Amino acid sequence: MPKINLSNITLNYEDKGKGKVLLFLHGLGSSIKDWDFQVPFFSKNFRVITVDLRGHGDSVMKDNNFGVDYMVNDIKEFLDALKIDNVTFIGFSMGGAIAFQFAYSYPEKIDKMVIVNSGPDFNNMGEIGEDLLKKRTEFLKTKGLDPLAKEIAFNMFPESHQLNLRNEFEARCKKNNFDNYYQSFVTLMDWGMGNKIKDIEAETLVVASDMDYTPVAFKEEYVKNLQKASLKVIKNSRHGVVLDQPDAFNKALFTFLSHE
């Protein structure tokens, strides 16, 4: 896979297909492998780009800065380097935060936006967010990343027929540098859009799993604050919907991308 040298990072990415550009942004502790079931499907009709975000995968940082704003800057410089002026973002979990922030900061570059099991305010999720921040930081400090990777993988893919997905995600998460993962997590949990979400004009599809960490009602509430947004709920799915229900997800995404 190619790599591109930018001012503060060398980004690892994959670029396949031709047509309108789809940029897929993975979740916390993962990599472009989140999109293994999407790349072959969508690259038949679109130009599909996946990228390892700051502190993740095979991308290499040249500084020690973390947070959504830095990731947005990386992606802006990345798109400029590839001379891409118009793009649809598909952001899963942490990737959704980056998509939200990018759509607000650089609206002229956004065609459409897809938010997958994510939200616009990780710093204002109430008891769910506070509990997640407290438990995960304590877990990391006392037990380390490997046991956390095992627990997250099981929570995402607990069923017997999901064993391969579980093992692959656990292995992927364990590859992370501890400090990179920790800093990515705590800075993500400190990020939020607030009222700025109302200024986002891009047509948006929000995809929610019926068994995600945050309830469907959480997504329904913020969808109301977006100018042009619709919600699609995927049944029998947990947080990793792009992996545990790829056919249903791909169908919903393709339908959204195909209408003008």
Automatic annotation (TrEMBL):
Keywords noted in UniProt: Hydrolase
Pfam families listed in its UniProt record: Abhydrolase_1 (PF00561)
InterPro entries recorded: AB_hydrolase_1, AB_hydrolase_fold, AB_hydrolase_sf
GO (cellular component) term, any one: membrane
Organism: Aureibaculum algae
Stated name of the protein: Alpha/beta hydrolase
Annotated GO MF terms: hydrolase activity
Keyword Cell division: no
Hydrolase in keyword set: yes
Secretion signal span: none
Residue span(s) of domain AB hydrolase-1: 21-135
